[in-house]
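Q: Start with the shorter request: fold the first protein.
A: Done. Sequence, then structure:
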Amino acid sequence: MAAQKEDRRIRRTKRLLRQALAEIMNEKDFKDITVKEITDRADLNRGTFYFHYTDTYDLRNQIEDELVEELKEAIAEFQPEQAEFSLRPMLKKVFDYVLSQKFLFRTFFRSSSNSGLQNKVMAVVEENIDNARSELEVNESERSRKYHSRFMSSGVMGCVNLWLENSNEMAVDIIVDELDEMFQRILKGA
């Protein structure tokens, strides 16, 4: 029972540090953020920070890695729908997950000193699109499939960014339907 309380406290501490970093990243460049600022904002002492992280870059990287792993879990069961060439289920999961972590994604994507999270998310999306295209046995060369998958994943990331910048002005289902329709045309060679 003591381990459960410790785990809960650790999760709470990490959540506070994560939130504090994101809030400060909205106020200033990441490179200018100090551990002291983060711990002051989180109302924790520096020793607690250093118990979990080596520096601000380690905190940021761990947040990114956690977001990417959670996204991978969210879309892990994605299977393309052969009859309709649909990527809709995967796209829906991507947008739903981004929406659930909107503050962090918006903050990290906006950070001028960091494109790491965007690149990591795009790699996950691209891998899933590439695997789907392979499973659908789309009639194309390996090279073409890779280029199409990169093009499609870049489009998803561009739309995610625009959607976040515009405070989710478009409903998830609408943007997912529009992306899926475009991708179906590409997959069918239309």
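Q: Next, the second protein, separately.
A: Sequence, then structure:
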Amino acid sequence: MRDRWRAIGVLAGALFAVNVVARVIIELGFDGNDTAADRVSLGMFVVLGLILAAVVFVQGRERPAGRWGADVTAAVLIALALTVLVGPLLVGDNPFGGGAGLFFAQIWLYLLATGAGVAVGYLILTALGLDHRSQQLKRYAEIKAAKPRRVVRR
């Protein structure tokens, strides 16, 4: 159980670190330039999605969807809370300074980007037939095909 929470913490930390790097780049390099800040934010969301797609691809091969899904959900929710509440404080902003609209927009965009990353990773994994369930079904079919048919005498 401890290893499971450690993996969740590492993933949440990595997702939060991507956000912190994006915020620092915006603050130091593009302060006042909204177009560049939007591009850096878009790049951050793409990186978040790619990280989650890779994690889902790797974890989905080894573990059932319910197990890795719970871990990824927990990590995303922890990283979301850190990103929305702590991230602005690191660059000297107020988390609620932009108003409720901006606050909730950050939450929805974060959930959209992470959800898209998870979906892409799982769809690729399933399309290639490498997910845990497909592998179980493949092993079952091989075992059933390997046994000779039992002859019944009457």
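Q: Describe the second briefly.
A: The chain has a mean pLDDT of 87. The radius of gyration is 21 Å.
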